[in-house]
Amino acid sequence: MRPLALFGGTFDPIHNAHLRVAWEASELLDADVRLLPASVPPHRDQPRASAEQRAALVRAALAGQQRLVLDARELQREGPSYTIDTLAEVRAEIGAERPLVLLVGADAFAGFADWHRWRELFDFAHIGVLTRPGHEGGTLPTELRTKIASRRCADAASLRESPAGRVLPIAVTPLEISASQVRALLAAGRDPRWLVPDALFADSRLLAPYRQR
Ligand code: ATP
């Protein structure tokens, strides 16, 4: 069965590295990827743009292709966007058998043990850990290392053998782009052209929240 992959984030704003790594994971896993902007991210500072503005940016960025799609469910939920709730919802929708893969960047995975009910995430999905420049080879917290020791696998085919529970490192093209960098450029009156998709410049309202001082 083809896996379904979920790629959560603040997407404040979405940038070309988000898009490219999601695309590469989609090709490697032969999976559709849903991008899920978090309305109230529990693990970090609150976003600069509203949930609706960030979803509009994602929608604009994804136009013209079908592999990556926006899933706006976390924007409709009250309170913090806990990944465990999202995975439980999606699992209920797709049934018990279909492989589900949660994609996270290496930086996000390093903090995984702070996520709400993190140990249960492995019951709902596999985890695909995307390489990210500047976040190579760091030591994971002991409890996380212990939890994943017997779950690691080396090839994408392994994720088709069960619906959830494995951890797959996914080597993607190293792209040193961050949303913080894009926000800083816009706040300084500069133009983040080619760090974000051209579609974000097509409507001046899309990036306006970041241009305001
Ligand atoms: P910020 O700079 O505001 O912290 P960000 O660029 O890390 O933002 P997020 O929306 O926080 O973007 O990230 C969503 C997901 O995408 C996370 O799992 C993150 O690790 C991953 N990600 C973001 N940028 C990259 C990148 N350049 N390479 C690989 N993964 C990335």
From TrEMBL:
Q: What EC number(s) would the UniProt record show?
A: 2.7.7.18
Q: What class of enzyme is it?
A: transferase
Under the heading SUPFAM superfamilies, the entry gives: Nucleotidylyl transferase
Q: Which reaction does it catalyse?
A: nicotinate beta-D-ribonucleotide + ATP + H(+) = deamido-NAD(+) + diphosphate
Pathway per its UniProt entry is: Cofactor biosynthesis; NAD(+) biosynthesis; deamido-NAD(+) from nicotinate D-ribonucleotide: step 1/1
- What GO molecular function annotation could you give as one example from this UniProt entry? ATP binding
Q: Tell me where in this chain the Cytidyltransferase-like domain is found.
A: 6-183
Q: Which InterPro entries match?
A: Cyt_trans-like (IPR004821), NadD/NMNAT (IPR005248), Rossmann-like_a/b/a_fold (IPR014729)
Record CDD domains: NMNAT (cd02165)
Keywords, alphabetical? ATP-binding, NAD, Nucleotide-binding, Nucleotidyltransferase, Pyridine nucleotide biosynthesis, Transferase
Coiled-coil intervals, chain numbering: none
What is the protein's known function? Answer: Catalyzes the reversible adenylation of nicotinate mononucleotide (NaMN) to nicotinic acid adenine dinucleotide (NaAD).
The entry's family comment says: Belongs to the NadD family.
HAMAP family (alphabetical): NaMN_adenylyltr
Q: What is this protein called?
A: Probable nicotinate-nucleotide adenylyltransferase
